[in-house]
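For practice. Supply one:
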Amino acid sequence: MAFWQTQIGPHYDGDTRSLGSLRCIGELVCPDCENVMARLFDDPKGLAVSAWVPAADSSVANPNSRRVGWTFFALLDDSMPDEESAPLRCWRGHDHLIATARDCRAAEAVYRRTGRKKRVAISRIDPDEVR
């Protein structure tokens, strides 16, 4: 099973703040700079995860252009194992990071227990590791 289920489309500079009327219950952040890399949303069908991943630093032809990337979406339900993961790259250039279903569920558990949004720093991976 792949972590990301949908590639929503191109994304320019910054982050995606919402998924319609769904409540944001957590955020996955870069362990180096605490930049928000993904948001977790309370969905009736499970835990919705939306992340934005930079494709490149800038255009070679126009270095002053907006940075472009992709927005990805996943709906975590009981069938997705905790070990399922996806590599992420911070918009501020930090690389070799990985988000797991376990990270997402940990943030969700805090929200369920306290009613407050939780920020979770994602983990690093060995650059040579292949998943």
